[in-house]
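Newbie here. two chains, one complex. Structure please?
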Amino acid sequence: MNVAATTDGTMQAGRNRIHPHKFALYVACGSIIMLFTAFTSAYIVRQAAGNWLEFRLPDLFFVNTGVILLSSLVLQGSYWSFKRGKKEAYRGLLTLAFLLGITFLVFQFKAWQAMAGIGVMLDGNPSGSFIYLISGVHAAHVLGGIAAMLMALIHAFMLPVKATARRTLRFELVLIYWHFVGFLWLYLLGFFVVSAG
Amino acid sequence: MATAANKSTAPAPHDVDLLIEEYGYDDHFHEHHEGDKYQSNFFTTYIFSQDHKMIARQFLITGMFWAVIGGLMSLVFRLQLGFPEESLAWLRPLLGKWITINAETGVGTLAPEFYYALVTMHGTIIVFFVLTAGLSGTFSNLLIPLMVGARDMASPFLNMLSYWFFFLAGVVMFFSLFLNTGPFAGGWTAYPPLSALPQASSGSAGGMTLWLISLTFFVVSVLLGGINYITTILNLRTKGMNMWRLPLPIWAFFVTAVLGLLSFPVLVSGFFLLIFDRTLGTSFFLNEIFIGGQALDYVGGSPILYQHLFWFLGHPEVYIIILPAMGIVSEVLSVHSRKPIFGYKAMVYSILAIGFLSFIVWAHHMFMSGVNPFISNFFVVFTLIIAVPSAVKVFNWITTIYGGNIRYTSAALFGVGFVSMFISGGLTGIFLGNSAIDIQMHDTYFVVAHFHIVMGVAAFFGMFAGVYHWFPKMFGRFMNETLGKIHFWGTLIGAYAIFWPMHYLGMAGVPRRYYRFDNFDTFSHFSAMNQFITIAAVLVFAVQVVFIVNFFRSIWFGRKMTTRNPYGANTLEWTTPVDVPHGNWPGKIPTVQRWAYDYAKAGEENISQIIPLAEGEHDQGH
């Protein structure tokens, strides 16, 4: 999109390759990455200090990785349908992505219950506390994405389906963020697996 | 004060409109803002404003409010340190039960717990609310859109939220001052276990909870602001404004925002761990601990881990504070000495180098925490390397004013004062950065003297330089210069009188944060020095009252700004009308034709950035 926006989202003759709002989202993602980098660094430092309980991660974490990546793909499909004006596919896939997002959160909760079930409690050894905390803060970021998708759903069903520049941008913002939290989970789970050896 | 004197080839000042009309470009901004939806009534104009200039003023005045609170707190604990035997009963109407009255003698003494609360709050308030929000928040908001040639921030709405999160942070912190158990009292760094165990001290319960809530709101404010600053600088620059034509304050605000975005989330991660330890029973930072003979069931945590997370923010934070001041001073010194900034590119690279290095020196705050001495070596080396870009900047400021046609305005004086403070405080940093010397110096008044001069007073000087310089842009009037000079000399001499003696206290080993020293014979001969410091502190505060009176009086009664470019400056903010409208320029947006520092060039006193290059003229910004 070789146009840039003025501050209220209207288009002006383009000099900027990227819309400021989209760029702002990338910057925000960078900030979130720093948050999780700090968490995982603290994890490594604490793990190196010893007295570290080792346990098997709940299988649901792995299943859930599939759920959130599938949700990402479905949302991407919804976006393509929106661009091509395919109303039914756009609405249907968006709803499905939203439901998969909710499913992810429910499964994360179940996974925490499974951890508690094998005796890994939040206030026990820090190895478990870190998993609860990191996956919990990640879930909070997912919840933000679900709120954004809810707005997208309201738009999808309340407004006529028309891929105006402004609505495309809004959809793209939701899409980028949703992909981001999906890949963030992939990184976190990978980190848990690798650091557990 | 001389006005812009573009005599021969360049158009006269009143031709600015013609230049903008001829070379500017039309973004149809005003066609989309019929009725100006942002400023339609009192609330949207003054309270929930989305205009960056109003938000800048909100940040500044809120910052000033907090500066007064934080400053008054320091006076109370300075009275305790300077005159521990004197009765503070007269403070009882204000401080209530924190002043305990001896029933027999009637002597009022400051409660020791409240002394710690005052020290803690003074640090938190000045570091975060005044020198981060009040300084970077004010000038990033005011100057970024005006100097890069944008209508407003990339997201005016998020920008408004940024201010209101800051405001909310302030409200929560203010409430904590009135808690029955007092505000948090474990130091502005909030180290566990004092911060992690609600029963650790009186301020560790409700006070610490509110401290955490407040600071979390504050971080949200910084992040929302920072995202906007970065995006606006990179995406909304006007035509011709390439990165090498950016005025130096913008470079400084840019790197400041990047530092904030990369380091504040790390602090938040520490806060999360701390909140979990406090409320959910985890043991991230807590190890086997006894309180009142009672063993707590925490096991295996490390308080040092918190220190790492805290200082990973904490050190970049001092550059978040000082870089905007550096940027402001670079601009002010150049404009008021009528000379181009010396070594523009070196200045930019120094800012970038300082920004980068600030991330790999954090453990120099932890030399005495038991970290491996070999790791300390790494941090010593990088800490000392920061002296290189810092020295480059100092050299360039001095060479900028050297031989200049200096106008001794209050802004310029504070700019020079900044350089003086930065040198004095920077040199002691070289001592403290050595881990061997730090064994003697750490946690003494030497450290207090060092950081107050180099990032406290210096940053205030940068802020004052900015306020005096851009006051006409903010309020359309000038501040009183005589009062400004009284303010400058009083503050310069007074600040040195406060902090210079502290070096001697520190070298003798006088520890910081102590409530009183009467029980230590070895320090008894310093009581006169402590009295001197306290008297100087009271006088410096009194001089700040002069500033505040001058500030508010000038808003309504100051000398009016009649020309749009009173200093003959080159940057874009001085091409806007005297009464700057929403959207900053009434018609087209000006385009930029040259770098920002064409002073004393080709027989001209100054050449604005909007004036096209003459044939064969070389633009020094490239």
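Moderator note: Chain A has a mean pLDDT of 90. The interface with chain B takes residues 4, 6-8, 10, 12-13, 15-16, 18-21, 23-24, 27-28, 30-32, 34-39, 42, 45-46, 49, 51, 122-123, 125-126, 129-130, 133, 137 of chain A (CB under 8 Å). Thread marked as resolved.
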